[in-house]
Amino acid sequence: MTTMMPPMSDAPAPPPLWQRARALFEQATDRVGHVLGRVDRLVADVRRDARAVRDDSAALWATASARAALAKETPRFARIVSESLGIIARYRVHQARAEHLDPDVAARRLDALHTRAAERATALCEELGGGVLKLGQTLSARRDLLPAPWVVALARLQDRVPAEATEAVEAALTAAYGAPPSEVFAAFEPEPVAAGSLAQVHRATLASGETVAVKVQRPGVGRLLEIDLAALRVVARALGDVFPVVDPDSLTAELSRLIADELDFQREAELLSELAARASSALTVPAPHLELCRETVLVMGFSDGERLTDFLDAASPGVQREALSRIICDFAVQVFVDGLVHTDPHPGNFLVERRPTDADADAFRVVLLDLGSARRLPREVRRAYAQLVGALAGRQVAKLAGLLEALGFAAEGGPEALAPIAEELVRAVFPSGGLGALDAREELARAMRLMRELPKLTVPDHFVAVGRVLGSLGGLVMHYKPDVDLVKLVLPTVAIALRG
């Protein structure tokens, strides 16, 4: 086997990952063999998994033979692969046992397995951080792919990101500017105001006296992401077999694109410039200081606003209604007219700045943060979404199903097979008990569960991004229940999009 994976000249030979994988699976089959007595198919599946890991690992190391950075992360790569295979092995064991169990018992055991496996994966993400943590955060939004216990467990990763050491951040800034932060900024606060899996934000002051936010990529995060995505590709085949709705190639490609976008600070700076130039009095974004932006550093205006949820909690019903109406209308403009989808619109990315004037003592504006993961929609796609809203307003299920197909949904049986999803969308927008009965997050979860149940259903990745927006905004509407008609609120914007 060593002939398949020649060692790098400046690094030790990689460990035989396939041997570890095979040993892991053989232990699993031995244990289940005592229970079942007959494990022919399970052993065949195990051997196939081990061969896949062997072949993919060999190919990976062969193509990376000149990259010493990859070799240095061999322990991390091996840990991710072995932990992933351990989880997959447990699902293999469950599949073999389930054939001999009552269906209800098998379903309960599968739910328990989902919970245990999700907790194990979440703990690994927390421990390793970097790309693994980002992958976990991204997957937490994929209700169309993962069972509920996985979504719940991975969602906790959004709030469990430790800050980078001060020395590492200062070294990263020095490398970016060729000078220490004390020479670039009049003042720089070493304690971050926010920490994410790929970057963290610090407050600083320019020589002009303006307060700015400095977003700094975590040192070495690009290299870690490369390793982590490589490990995911290695286990993807076995993962797709355990979770049949997962298309390994599409999943890894989507995750790679999302992460590449978030690491592209030049792209984010351009988006901020574009949106800041046409910001409304109701919603804006921080304006970037392009002269201070670097490949790994983004400098922009600092907002001292309060969290949106804190603002809404203290506001009167009238102000709540106005604030949420503004946000919904502005997001409608972004999606249907501009073709821009903010793929991480959780409440923490909305701040409210109070801007009292002589005419309005309660004046305010909403500041939208973190456009790193925002994505563009082609004109034909956003037009199809606009038509989708029109069909929703008319409760035209058959037309909705056809538009879902136009957006990239595919299922055995054509548009007719998509009718259940169309009906679920109508039910979500027009609940039988009225707006007061609307639980947008639950309705979205129900639709995603339905998608998982449809055979060989393809869900376009842009729908997942739009779904996150709908789920987040719908959650705010559900909680505060403003006296607004959601469909009528966005129809004027939809009309503009259809004329464009």
Give a short summary of the structure.
With 500 residues, the protein is an alpha+beta fold.
Could you explain the architecture of this structure?
The structure is a single chain. The protein is an alpha+beta fold. It folds into 3 domains: 2-161 and 222-257, no CATH class; 165-218 and 264-302, 2-Layer Sandwich (Phosphorylase Kinase, domain 1), CATH 3.30.200; 305-500, no CATH class. 60% of the residues lie in helices and 8% in strands. The strands form 3 sheets. Strands 1, 2, 3, 4 and 6 form a 5-stranded antiparallel β-sheet that branches. A 4-stranded mixed β-sheet has the order 5-10-9-7. A hairpin with a 3-residue loop joins β2 and β3 (199-205). α1 packs parallel to α4. The longest helix has 26 residues, at 103-128. 37% of the residues are buried.
Key terms:
disordered N terminus; 500 residues; Phosphorylase Kinase, domain 1; 3 domains; alpha+beta; 4-stranded mixed β-sheet; 5-stranded antiparallel β-sheet
